[in-house]
Amino acid sequence: MQMPAPDQGVIARRAAIAARLAHAVPGAVIDDPMETRAYECDALSAYRCPPLAVVLPRTTEEVAAILRICHDERVPVVPRGAGTSLAGGSMPTADAVVVGLARMNAVLETDLADRFIRVQAGRTNLSVSGAVEGAGFFYAPDPSSQLACAIGGNIGMNSGGAHCLKYGVTTNNLLGVTVVLMDGSVVELGGPMGEAPGLDLLGVICGSEGQLGIVTEATLRILPKPVGARPVLVGFDASETAGACVAAIIRAGVLPVAIEFMDRPCIRATEEFAGAGYPDCEALLIIEVEGSPPEIDEQLALIRGIADGFAPVEFRESRSEDESRRIWLGRKSAFGAMGQINDYMCLDGTIPVSTLPQVLAGIARLSGEYGLDVANVFHAGDGNMHPLILYNANTPGDLERCEALGAEILKLCVQVGGCLTGEHGVGVEKRELMLTQFSQADLEAQMQVKDVFDPQWLLNAAKVFPLAVSAPRREGLRNAA
Amino acid sequence: MRPETEAELAEIIRTSRATLSPIGGGTRLRPGEGVAPLDVSGLSGITLYEPAALTVVARAGTPLAELQAALAAEGQMLAFEPDEREGSTIGGVVAANASGARRVQVGACRDALLGVRFVDGQGEVIANGGRVMKNVTGYDLVKLMAGSRGQLGVLTEVALKTAPKPPVTATLAVPGTATDAVAVLTQALTGPYDISGAAWLPGQGALVRIEGLEGSVAIRSKALAEKLGAEVTQADWATVPRAASGDLWRIICRPSEAPRLLAALPQPIAMDWGGALIWVALPAGETPNLPAWSGHASRVTGDAPLTIPAPNPVVSRLNASLRERFDPRAIFASDGTCRQTSRLSS
C-alpha cells in the first residue's frame, strides 16, 4: 500500500506549526514524537505512520481555530474519531495534523418528545444509547465496535451494524450535523426530519470519510425500545441452503431485525473461543425478531415454517434472556475468536442477496487457489459479507497473498452486482480498487464534490480515490491552473 | 424533446445551447420549473426486479403506477411511501424526494434509494450507489440527487429498496384540532407501537396507522387505542391533500414547535410526520409571519419560489458551487431561480 510522499516543507516547519496550534488551543497539542506514535494507525494496523502533530480539541470553536491555522499553513489534516476504522480511514501521513475528537464526548441536548439526541461527535456509539435507555429509547445503528467507535467516525463511514435490516444505517438515523469546513467556517446541515432547503448536503457529508469537513456535533434520531427481542439459531448442512433460506424468509414477507450468517470455520473457532454451545454444522443463521411476546411468537412461527422447508439440522429458539445472550455470544465474539487463532483480514463487500450461493462458492474456489482459508460471518439479510481471510503475518509474502485474495473476492462482489464496501468504508484499503466499480467519470463526479468543500484537498486527501486519479488535485495542479 | 434512451438524452444535453428543465410526469412542478421542458418519460420500464433481494431498478420515466403494480403483483411495495399523484414518474418522485406518511417509520424516498444513473450538465453519464442494501463505496451522490429537482443532472435510472406489503393495516383516530393532535401523535410515536403513519386531517383529527402481521396489529392497536382513547377508522394515507386556493406552503419543524407555528397560521390542509410537516394554504403572495423555529417553510405553488428563513450564506455557497460543478454551462434551470446563463449566449 502506497501513500503519497509527505510535504517536506511542512515537516520542516513542524515546531512552528505546533506552536501556533498550541497558542490557539492551549493544552490540546501533542507533538512529541514518542506521543504522536499512539496515533500512527487505526484498526487497520498493518499500516502505520506517525503524524506531524495531534490536536485534541474540546469544542467546535477549537476545531475551527485548528482548521483555520492548517488551512493558512497548507497543512494536511486527518480527522479521527476513536481510531477504530478497519479501512485506514484515520491513518495519518507524516505531514498531517490529526484532529482527534476523543475529548468531545458530551451530550448537548436530549429531546424525547421530538425523538432526538444531540451529541458531540467524539461520543461513543454505545454511550449514545446509554444516555437515553433509562427513558426507554435507543440509537439504532450498532456497529460491532460500538463500545469504542465514535459517532463522528460512524458518520464519516456511514456505519451499519447487525440490526440495519430493519433500522437502516447511520445516514438513515442522522438528522443533522455541525461541520467545520477546511477553511474554518462552521455550518449546520440537516434539520427537523433531517431536512433542509436545497440539496441534501447532510446526505453527502455522511459517508464522505472525513474528506469534506470535520463533523463536531450530531443530531441523531432515537427510537422507543421495542417491548422485547428474541433470536433463533438455525443450523444447516450446507452454506448454500442457509443462503437459500435467507432469501425465502425475505421473500415470504417477514422482515426480522437481523439475520446473521456464520460458516463452519467460523462456528468452530468461536466455539473454542467462547463456548456458546453452537451446533456442529456447515452453516448457521441467527435470526432476531422484535415485539411483545405474542408478536414474537407470531413471527417465529412463520420463520420456523419457512426454515423447515430447508431441512435444518437445528432450530433453537431462545427461551430466556440467558439463552438469547448465548445465541448472540458466538456471533459477537467471532472476530475476537478468529484473531486468537490467526491474523486475519476482514472484507466488507455487499452483494445482492440472491447471489449468495454463487458468491460463497466463488469464495471457496478462490480460497483454494490462493491457499488461504476464508471464514464467513456476515449480515445475510442485507447481503453485507464479512469474509475473514486467515494468514500469518510472520510468514513472508502471506500479507501480500491475503491482500491479493481479498481484492479478487471484492471484484467478485462487484461482478455479481454488489459493491466493494458495505459499512467499513474505502479508506486506504480499497482505494485502488475503486475503478473496478466506478468509471473515471463516476469518480470525477465524486471528486468535484470534494473540490467544492475542500478546494485545496487538505482533508484526509490520500483516501477513497485511487492515488493516480486524485493526484492532479492533491498536487494542486488543477487549482493552480 | 422526448429522448428514449440514456444516450439520446446525453446527446441532447451535450449539444444543447439553451436552458432545459427535465420533466417526468410534470405532477409536482414548483414555480419556475418546467419552463423549457426536457421530457424524460420516454426512458421507461423496469430493468431489474428481484423480490427476494428486496430491490427494483427502473428507468426514470417509468410511471409510478406501473412500478407499484409490478411490486404489488409480488406482494411488495416501495420501501418508502411516495406522496402519490396521478401521472407521476418514479424519476420525478426521486428528484422531488416526495415522501409520504410512512417516513416516520422507514424514512423518506432518499432512504430507500440505493443507486442512480444520471446525465450531468456536460452530458456525461454518471452512476453512483448500486443495487445493494448497504453500500459506502465512495461518496453518496445518491442522497445528493434525491430531492435535487433536476438541478445537478437528469436522472435516467433509479434503484430502490422494496418491502413486503403488510398483510394488515389499522388506522386509529382521535378527533380534535391540529394543535391537539401534536400531543396525541407524540404519545403514539414515543411508545413501542412501531407506528407507520402519524398525521392530522381536518374533520378527522389525529390519525395513527399500525401495520404488520394480523396478531401483531391487533395487539398494538388495542393497546394504543386504550392509551389514546382512539377509535378505529379509515383514511387515505397515500395522497397529500392539495390547496384549493391561494399558495400552498410546506413547513418543516420539530413536532414540539408545531403548536407555536399553528397558532400563527390559518387551519392547515394537513399535518404529517407526527407534526413535523405542516401543509397550509395562504392567500396568494402572502408570506407567513412565524416565530423563530428550527425548520423552514417553502412556498411550493404561486408566482415564485420562496423559502424562509433564508439559508445560511455558507450553505447557499455550497449549493451554488455544487450546481456550478455539475452543470457549469447552467443548462438546467429548474427551480426558477435561473442562474446567469450569459455563458450560453455566445
Automatic annotation (TrEMBL), chain A:
<dbReference type="InterPro" id="IPR006094">
    <property type="entry name" value="Oxid_FAD_bind_N"/>
</dbReference>
<dbReference type="Pfam" id="PF01565">
    <property type="entry name" value="FAD_binding_4"/>
</dbReference>
<keyword id="KW-0560">Oxidoreductase</keyword>
<keyword id="KW-0285">Flavoprotein</keyword>
<feature type="domain" description="FAD-binding PCMH-type">
    <location>
        <begin position="47"/>
        <end position="225"/>
    </location>
</feature>
<keyword id="KW-0274">FAD</keyword>
<protein>
    <submittedName>
        <fullName>Glycolate oxidase</fullName>
    </submittedName>
</protein>
<dbReference type="GO" id="GO:0016491">
    <property type="term" value="F:oxidoreductase activity"/>
</dbReference>
<dbReference type="Pfam" id="PF02913">
    <property type="entry name" value="FAD-oxidase_C"/>
</dbReference>
<dbReference type="InterPro" id="IPR016171">
    <property type="entry name" value="Vanillyl_alc_oxidase_C-sub2"/>
</dbReference>
<dbReference type="InterPro" id="IPR016169">
    <property type="entry name" value="FAD-bd_PCMH_sub2"/>
</dbReference>
<dbReference type="InterPro" id="IPR036318">
    <property type="entry name" value="FAD-bd_PCMH-like_sf"/>
</dbReference>
<dbReference type="InterPro" id="IPR016166">
    <property type="entry name" value="FAD-bd_PCMH"/>
</dbReference>
<dbReference type="InterPro" id="IPR004113">
    <property type="entry name" value="FAD-bd_oxidored_4_C"/>
</dbReference>
<dbReference type="GO" id="GO:0071949">
    <property type="term" value="F:FAD binding"/>
</dbReference>
<dbReference type="InterPro" id="IPR016164">
    <property type="entry name" value="FAD-linked_Oxase-like_C"/>
</dbReference>
<dbReference type="InterPro" id="IPR051914">
    <property type="entry name" value="FAD-linked_OxidoTrans_Type4"/>
</dbReference>
UniProtKB/TrEMBL annotation, chain B:
<dbReference type="InterPro" id="IPR016166">
    <property type="entry name" value="FAD-bd_PCMH"/>
</dbReference>
<keyword id="KW-0274">FAD</keyword>
<feature type="domain" description="FAD-binding PCMH-type">
    <location>
        <begin position="1"/>
        <end position="165"/>
    </location>
</feature>
<protein>
    <submittedName>
        <fullName>Glycolate oxidase FAD binding subunit</fullName>
    </submittedName>
</protein>
<dbReference type="GO" id="GO:0003824">
    <property type="term" value="F:catalytic activity"/>
</dbReference>
<dbReference type="InterPro" id="IPR016169">
    <property type="entry name" value="FAD-bd_PCMH_sub2"/>
</dbReference>
<dbReference type="GO" id="GO:0071949">
    <property type="term" value="F:FAD binding"/>
</dbReference>
<keyword id="KW-0285">Flavoprotein</keyword>
<dbReference type="InterPro" id="IPR016164">
    <property type="entry name" value="FAD-linked_Oxase-like_C"/>
</dbReference>
<dbReference type="Pfam" id="PF01565">
    <property type="entry name" value="FAD_binding_4"/>
</dbReference>
<dbReference type="InterPro" id="IPR006094">
    <property type="entry name" value="Oxid_FAD_bind_N"/>
</dbReference>
<dbReference type="InterPro" id="IPR036318">
    <property type="entry name" value="FAD-bd_PCMH-like_sf"/>
</dbReference>
